[in-house]
Amino acid sequence: MCGIVGYIGYQDVKEILLRGLEKLEYRGYDSAGIAVLNDEGIHLFKEKGRIADLRNVVDPTVSASIGIGHTRWATHGAPSRVNAHPHQSASGRFTLVHNGVIENYAILKREYLQDVAFRSDTDTEVIVQLVEKFVNDGLSVEEAFRKTLTLLKGSYAIAMIDAENQEVIYVAKNKSPLLVGLGHGFNVVASDAMAMLQVTNQFVELMDKEMVIVTSEDITIKTLNGDIVQRAPYTAELDASDIEKGTYPHYMLKEIDEQPFVMRRIIQKYQDENGQLTIDPQIIQEVLNADRIYIIACGTSYHAGLVGKQLIEKWAKIPVEVHVASEFSYNMPLLSEKPLFIYISQSGETADSRAVLVQTNNLGYKAITITNVPGSTLSREADYTLLLHAGPEIAVASTKAYTAQIAVLAILAVATAKAKGIELDFDLVKELAIVANVMEMLCDAKEEMEKIAREYLAVTRNCFFIGRAVDYYVCLEGALKLKEISYIQAEGFAGGELKHGTIALIEDGTPVIALATQEHVNLSIRGNVKEVVARGANPCIISMRGLETEEDRFVIPAVHPMLTPLVSVVPLQLIAYYAALHRGCDVDKPRNLAKSVTVE
Ligand code: F6R
């Protein structure tokens, strides 16, 4: 979702901002813009579409060493050049970029800005117009900026420049992510460290309701009361090559292929010196103290949570509920006496999940965040964090984060079982190592997956995924992958549920992808396949070695029966990838979607 960059220093800023915005493209956006300031004043360039389109309208002869940039994912007002950021105050003195949603913008407009002619349909414009109004009323720019912030309700990450002062970028944050990066003779602002790794790896986190005065030599963090806050920088442990595609045509394919490596890295990161998988004893204690675990997540992370429930209940014998964050937030179920909350979020920034975390923190319940991004909002605000160690996930469609989430949940389940004295008849290190090897074999089966995608999905308008038990959860994920990148209407169903309504949709040739990796439901899911075939469906059965029959289209080498989601999802990810490719879709940046969903 929207991304912000800013630079103040000595180099020409245009290319730094544009390159930074390119690194934020993965978050999803529909328009982009930059504003740079030099002795002639502000130069503003905005365009609907891609950064490449913005590059075409940036005047290459303008040179400046202070500027801000933005990628916009429309919430208030259609995607258009006018609604693209940066936005300017009526006189053009102040120029601002914003990520988030200002919930009370209409009230503020009515109360303070009746006489101002607004140019855009955005909620953002109200911020920059308010700053100008308060400056016109006699406040200093810093006071006006602070006063504006105190009036805003909602979420914001903001960077603002003043045409009358080339020495400062005004920055603020509440709920939306924003970092300040430190350099020698320059400083930067970014929604994500990746955007500014080109110039620095030293970053300072900002907390909610903080503002920062950023100059080329210094940064001053203040609370909205004006108190100065000291905070040490951290080193962003990202390798620039982690965020490059290399020889891959798409990030999604690269990230699918990285899954075996991620499995091995997770084993290594969670192993103690004796080779035993281990979790922070304080986390284990919290799990043991709980009478019920509530997993909260969205989208793919929710699907990983469903698998995690099976693992924790079967191995650690603790009841688990899994909830979609956006529902839980407004419809909280009756909680157990000693609940423990686990938030699963690749980005650690998802606003829906964060809204629940704020609620459960207020209720005094302990929370663990499972995330790929150290220092992310959900990580900071929970009591404990378990990291995925999956490396940056850039493609909008989540792949390696999903399997990493399941692996970390498996480790948590086994470590809890051990702490409870429950004997398990397998060694998870060995089982995950087998998973990694099988993933490798599946990644090598690209040709076969490409064939399946061409044969079943080249022209269809819909596709069903059916499975039972844990296969059902993987079907939900397979369907989500397919629909988000190929735009084929795809749904995952519990095999037994189809006949209660959905089977009415099966027509001649309707593709039905069935997963059959679970022995105890193998006959039942095959019965469900027969039911759809009798109504004309074109079935594609993907089964597990040992359970296969002649009719199966693809057989996955066997892994531990509880860990099958880690491998059965790989063919589904690849099928979705090739289906999207055949249909000419933008695999890494599907329409309407954002990688980091920072608005509720
Ligand atoms: C789908 C996908 C989304 C995310 C969801 C939650 O491929 O990526 O469904 O899983 O938006 O995001 P995180 O995990 O960052 O909280």
TrEMBL record:
CC terms in the record's Gene Ontology section: cytosol
Main location class: cytoplasm
Domain SIS per the UniProt entry, residue ranges: 283-422, 452-590
CDD domains per record: GFAT, SIS_GlmS_GlmD_1, SIS_GlmS_GlmD_2
Keywords assigned by UniProt, alphabetized: Aminotransferase, Cytoplasm, Glutamine amidotransferase, Repeat, Transferase
GO terms (BP aspect): carbohydrate metabolic process; fructose 6-phosphate metabolic process; protein N-linked glycosylation; UDP-N-acetylglucosamine metabolic process
Subcellular location: Cytoplasm
InterPro entries: GATase_2_dom, GFAT, GFAT_N, GlmS/AgaS_SIS, GlmS/FrlB_SIS, Ntn_hydrolases_N, SIS_dom, SIS_dom_sf
Record domain Glutamine amidotransferase type-2: where: 2-217
Keyword Transferase applies: yes
PROSITE patterns given in the database record: GATASE_TYPE_2, SIS
SUPFAM superfamilies, alphabetized: N-terminal nucleophile aminohydrolases (Ntn hydrolases), SIS domain
Known EC number: 2.6.1.16
Domain of life: Bacteria
Active site: residue positions: C2 (nucleophile), K595 (for fru-6p isomerization activity)
Catalysed reactions, semicolon-separated: D-fructose 6-phosphate + L-glutamine = D-glucosamine 6-phosphate + L-glutamate
GO molecular function terms attached to this record: carbohydrate derivative binding; glutamine-fructose-6-phosphate transaminase (isomerizing) activity
Stored HAMAP family: GlmS
Protein role: Catalyzes the first step in hexosamine metabolism, converting fructose-6P into glucosamine-6P using glutamine as a nitrogen source.
PANTHER family: GLUCOSAMINE--FRUCTOSE-6-PHOSPHATE AMINOTRANSFERASE, ISOMERIZING (PTHR10937), GLUTAMINE--FRUCTOSE-6-PHOSPHATE TRANSAMINASE (ISOMERIZING) (PTHR10937:SF0)
Known partners and oligomeric status: Homodimer.
This protein's name: Glutamine--fructose-6-phosphate aminotransferase [isomerizing]
Organism, as annotated: Parageobacillus caldoxylosilyticus NBRC 107762
Gene it is expressed from: glmS
